[in-house]
Design goal:
The protein is built from 6 helices and no strands. It has about 110 residues and is mostly helical.
């Protein structure tokens, strides 16, 4: 599963060298992190709506859009997906409540 995410992240990174008139990803990256974050927020809202009031197929589509836009935001900030995956890996086996409490202390 993470192979698909890693491949998508690599494709998004490669789009930096595409022409803006041929690549939506390039247009987002050129607009900068603030625009990428705004678009991620819009997709998050659409995912919430799909999750609460639409069918499974719409939820799947919106979730895919959300993940794509998260990866674009990470690329726009120069944050590697592998670094995010490492954080998730570190959290494996740790209670979500405990992990949240630890973050609150720091």
């Amino acid at each position: 599963m993470s192979d698909v995410l890693l491949q998508l992240a690599a494709t998004i990174s490669a789009r930096r060298s595409a022409t803006a008139d041929s690549s939506y990803t390039r247009q987002l990256l050129d607009a900068g992190p603030a625009r990428c974050a705004k678009k991620l927020g819009e997709e998050a809202i659409e995912t919430v709506i799909a999750g609460t009031s639409e069918g499974d197929e719409q939820l799947k589509a919106e979730a895919a859009d959300l993940i794509y836009h998260l990866l674009v935001l990470l690329e726009s900030r120069g944050v590697a997906l592998n670094d995010v995956l490492a954080v998730l890996d570190k959290r494996q086996g740790v209670s979500g409540l405990k992990e949240k409490a630890e973050r609150s202390k720091g």
